[in-house]
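@channel sequence for tomorrow's demo:
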Amino acid sequence: MKHEEANKEIGSKGTEAQKSRGGRGKSKRSNPQPPIPSPQSPAPNPQPPVPNLDNWLEIGKIVSPQGLSGELKVYPVSDFPERFEVPGKRWLLCSGDTEPQPIELLTGRYISNKNLYVIKLAGVETCDRAEALRGCKLMVPVSDRPQLGKGEYHVLDLIGVEVFMQASGELVGTVVDIIAAGNDLLEVKLHPSFTGQMTNDKKQKTVLIPFVEAIAPVVDLKSNRIEITPPPGLLEINNS
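structure tokens (generated this afternoon):
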């Protein structure tokens, strides 16, 4: 089942400040010395702003330069080759950016044995310039999502959908991620009430369910529901 890319959360939701607990005590010394002043604590470094990516989709990540002429290797997180092969405007999100920056895609080709694309971007003419873009992410606006055919789904639409056993109607859990593989896999966080969940383990588990019609025959996004018919043993949790 074909899917479109997901927008990934960039950065963390915050950091926990370390706190110390102190108190006042009485000295037994008859002639207490004045306290030694502590050095002034340096001002904390401001955290870089976290981009708001609600209106953006990540389609790939630049992993390294290719050759000496500024070409780039890109790991795709989109099933749509036109994202990397059809010239036109794309956007780059690099570390420290508050929003994606526009850039022009000139050419692109697929390297099948490595599951990578090699692309050429306007203004990137040298290996050093390409190296500076390592780790940057290729983005497109959410409004640019292509129309999908039957049996095709956008990743964003699958995240958060509840998964049920078709035979019993029992709630299995909730889709938390899509993992690209030979057949895409639904990563499902098990609901505590699911009978496959070990009662002596307080930590919720996740399972991987192949997103193929034989195992997930019903996908009803309007009802926020996926029904599955897993083969025996698929949902068993390895507690070793």
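heads up for whoever presents: The first strand starts at residue 3 and ends at 4.
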